[in-house]
Amino acid sequence: MLNEQQTRFTKLDHPRIRLLAPAGSGKTLALLHRCLELRKRDSNNEFLLFSYTRAAVSELQYRINTDTTFAPIRDTTNVRTINAWGLNYINEKAIIRNPKLLDTNPKRISAVLNSLQSIWGQQQYKRFCDLLEDR
What span, in angstroms and rounded, lies between the C-alpha atoms of 23 and 3? Predict the structure, then answer.
């Protein structure tokens, strides 16, 4: 059961809302009920829910998949961590092939130098190249 503030949240007319509240305040429940409310208003609505942690993603997915209350949004709701969504976006758009985490300074330097290889030696970029070579 939602409290008064949660109920008000579910009925807001704004298309995008960032929900910030302390742990245990009912964010997950309120967010899922908001999706239900928006689905009632327009049966074509689809939802993309972000979280920072895998634990929160798991909790959202568990509730959507096990609580029959949320059956109407089960097939139209995608729940991801921000990092997982970003990596998927990069892979789908082929922005970067085989992305890797550059977790050390030598890896970062190597990536920058390899990215700039195509302009190396071009006179118009000579000053820039000189700066990079002077480590």
Answer: 16
